[in-house]
Specification:
Layout (H helix, E strand, L loop, with lengths): L1 H15 L33 H10 L3 E4 L14 H10 L4 E3 L5 E3 L2 E6 L4 E6 L13 H12 L11 E6 L5 E6 L31 E3 L3 E4 L13 E5 L6 H6 L5 E4 L13 E16 L9 H8 L4 H7 L5 E3 L23 H11 L1 E2 L8 E2 L2 E2 L1 E7 L3 H16 L3 E7 L1 H10 L4 E7 L7 H5 L10 H11 L4 H17 L2 E14 L3 E2 L16 E2 L5
Parallel strand pairs: 1-10, 17-18, 17-19
Antiparallel strand pairs: 2-3, 4-5, 5-7, 6-7, 8-9, 9-10, 11-20, 12-19, 12-20, 13-20, 14-15, 15-16, 21-22
């Protein structure tokens, strides 16, 4: 398939020439779980001697994670960062994403669809909720319909027109408004017991259940026998104290966005695992006015976006380069610089001449069709990574004689400028749905640049509505059209990380569905010696 994709691309290019310990209230229990080990009675403070602290650390044979007491543990409502990380311990979805954004079944045993619009999902039998009752199709229907009406999941599930039990036993039918063969990627929504959505902690089927200040491995879970971690302790750590808590081992795992607004400087040897996300970093153009309304100008400027340098310098290599649009993690299209759409000053010079970009008055600045040209790039100043990326883009353009200024803005001012079209270029980061529905960028609410979206609409529909090799061909067509139109320039798909202490956890397989994916298969060594 890859060879065929390359041949298609080559043929097209030939024709076109792109801290502190906190406790939760007592929760429901079922019998049969093992008694949890007692946590250490005291934690070191400013008066603790180095010897006493060493003794404490060696005695700390518990596995501790962060949570927020101020945020509830209701997966249908809560958006608290640390508590959301716990949801994959307490709840399960019909599917879960792997670290490279592939959907794999969890509570869904199997599924069928003939047209990408009507799905029949066979629900796994014998699954127990934490209160001892068995999972039914009504629980699944209730969960998905609750999620569809929630502010948290409504946009993700907006293409679903109906969810109902099917005639076949333990089968649910999902009907979509349009074909989408990537629907399973959207169905990692937590499944909860029918009628429990209004509770602070709805009843789930996850591998752990909530206790007092801890999570306890659920003994009726189908994979319970494989776990080596029977108890997980909950600690409330201020974000400013995360690095210290991890360093003194009072916190054993940290889910972290290395290019986010919170800086985490850990000066100790540790292990870092990366996983892919649907967070796209891109450069956008104003397609309605000024020089960037000219497709040829945009094509030329796109060759001055140095993907590799931006990812290395601004994102610390915690991102996948994406010269073409579709996330390379999906393996649908080869994303290689050989296409000619990547960074190249030689290609810029060739395209600039065709676009009327040259220094006609010999003042060392590039003119557009004989008239002076000045461009303005805006960026949200609250992200260090985006600031550094924007600075790199401006520097590379200035080196080629382009008169471009960079304007840092607060998030509110940045959004105002975008909505008013008050820019020539903007640097953005957006989390797309896991099915990679690009519609919002080209003809939806994120179309800040005034992109003409009719052609994009059909290309996106084809991309979502195809399967197998046809999906790869649709992805390539969308990639090529986006690169030729150059209304946006994809730069990278962000990755996130999970940090653990050296040698403590093996088998970790984090993903956008949750950093604790496959937790019952982990091997955990808490020996502090």
């Amino acid at each position: 398939m890859r060879r065929k994709i390359k041949r298609i691309a080559a043929a097209f290019l030939a024709l076109t020439a792109l801290s502190g310990c906190g406790f939760l209230p007592q929760a429901y229990f079922t019998g049969g779980h093992e008694d949890a080990a007692e946590p250490p009675a005291e934690e070191p403070d400013d008066n603790t001697t180095a010897h006493e602290k060493e003794i404490y650390l060696k005695a700390d044979s518990v596995f501790s994670v962060n949570y927020s007491a101020a945020q509830e543990l209701n997966p249908m409502r809560s958006t608290g960062y640390y508590n959301e990380q716990l949801f994959s311990l307490l709840y399960e979805g019909l599917f879960a994403l792997t670290g490279d954004l592939k959907a794999v079944p969890v509570l869904c045993e199997s599924y069928t669809t003939e047209d990408g619009r009507s799905y029949y999902l066979k629900i796994l039998e014998g699954v127990k909720f934490h209160d001892g009752t068995e999972l039914t199709t009504q629980d699944v229907v209730y969960s998905l319909n609750t999620a569809r009406s929630s502010s948290k999941y409504s946009a993700r599930l907006s293409d679903i027109s109906a969810v109902a039990p099917a005639q076949e036993p333990m089968t649910v039918k999902i009907t979509l408004r349009r074909a989408n063969y990537a629907l399973p990627a959207l169905l990692d929504v937590p499944i909860i017991k029918d009628g429990s959505a209004d509770g602070a902690t709805p009843v789930g089927t996850g591998p752990y259940m909530l206790g007092s200040g801890m999570l306890i491995a659920f003994s009726s879970h189908r994979d319970y026998a494989s776990t080596s971690l029977r108890t997980i302790y909950l600690k409330e750590i201020d974000p400013d104290d995360m690095a210290d808590a991890f360093a003194d081992r009072s916190l054993d795992i940290v889910g972290y966005d290395p290019t986010g607004s919170v800086s985490l400087n850990i000066h100790m040897v540790h292990e870092t695992r990366y996983y892919d996300t649907s967070d796209l970093v891109y450069l956008g153009f104003n397609c309605k006015r000024g020089p960037t309304s000219d497709t040829f100008v945009r094509q030329a400027l796109s060759r001055l976006v140095n993907h590799d340098a931006i990812i290395s310098d601004a994102y610390g290599n915690a991102a996948r380069r994406s010269i073409l649009l579709v996330n390379p993690a999906l393996g649908l299209v080869d994303d290689i610089n050989e296409t000619g759409y990547g960074y190249s000053r030689a290609n810029y010079n060739r395209l600039a001449a065709a676009a009327g970009l040259e220094d006609t008055d010999l003042d060392s600045f590039t003119d557009y069709n004989g008239e002076p040209m000045s461009l303005r790039l805006i960026v949200n100043s609250e992200s260090t990574a985006k600031l550094e990326a924007a600075q790199r883009i401006v520097s590379d353009m200035q080196d080629m004689g382009i008169n471009v200024t960079l304007e840092f803005m607060s998030f509110s001012n940045y959004q105002r400028a975008l909505s008013q079209g008050n820019f020539d270029m903007y640097l953005a980061e957006v989390r797309l749905k896991a099915d990679l529905d690009f519609g919002a960028l080209f003809y939806g609410k994120l179309n800040y640049g005034g992109i003409q979206g009719d052609e994009y609409r059909q290309l996106v529909l084809d991309f979502l509505g195809k399967d197998g090799e046809e999906k790869s061909e649709a992805a390539l067509a969308l990639d090529i059209y986006t690169a030729e139109d150059a209304s946006i320039v994809p730069i990278a798909w962000k990755q996130r990380t999970v940090l653990t202490h050296l040698g403590v956890v093996t088998g970790l397989a984090p993903s956008q569905s949750g950093i604790y994916n496959g937790v019952l298969g982990w091997k955990v060594n808490l020996d502090r010696d």
